[in-house]
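INTERNAL TRANSFER SHEET
From: sequence group
To: structure group
Subject: DRAM1 protein

Please process the attached sequence and return the structure record in the designated field. Keep the field labels unchanged so the import script can parse them.
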Amino acid sequence: MLCCMPGVAVVPALLVSWSSAAFIISYVVAVLAGDTGTKPPESGIFGFMINISALLAAVTMYIRYLLIEKQNEASRFVRSSCNIFSLCIGLMGCTGMGIVATFQELAVPSVHDIGALVAFGSGVVYITLQSIISYKSCPQWNTYFVCHIRMAISVISCIAFIPMIVFASQISMTKIDWTPGEKDYTYHFLSAICEWTVAFGFIFFFLTFIRDFQRVSLRVSTEIHED
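Return from structure group:
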């Protein structure tokens, strides 16, 4: 199905498919193994797949940046500096994803938490900026329906991000197995719900890029100069 997609729509489609598979496969392996996703082998599988997702996200963001730059040449609807800033914030989030995947929660919890904060925080800022840029490009380059969807996802992600940080900051211990009723379990449970809400918010947001990318093709031009 991915090979049949026109333009470069295969990139965000692959990002969404791969990231969803990363969550689902890790969860299934964890359930079958009878433990959590922070133990081998599911932690290794999750880390490997998230690193690939970070790379695909970076490529998607860069193509999105090029697309906006090209559209901006035809109709000036956003400052180029804003587009560059959005790209830098997005790439920062991809770096955070790489940190999360590389430094596991139990091995280096402080580095893992910093990576998660950078990934989620930068990600929320990125999709919010992209939602604003989408509105500015209406109606020539985007429909208001798509813009409303993107903004709704951004608002939900922002709302979930704040309590995620608040609840996570109240957890006084780093552990794998949580039992209902024990200390900090409620904070852990609520923080996890918010974290998954933001994570899937990113996935659904990139899903909206597919239609835009169907109209785009990347070409590499080579010029040979003779003396």
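Handover comment: Residues 1-5, 220-227 have pLDDT under 50 and may be disordered. The helical segments are 10-33, 42-74, 80-102, 109-136, 144-169, 185-207, 209-213.
Transfer complete.
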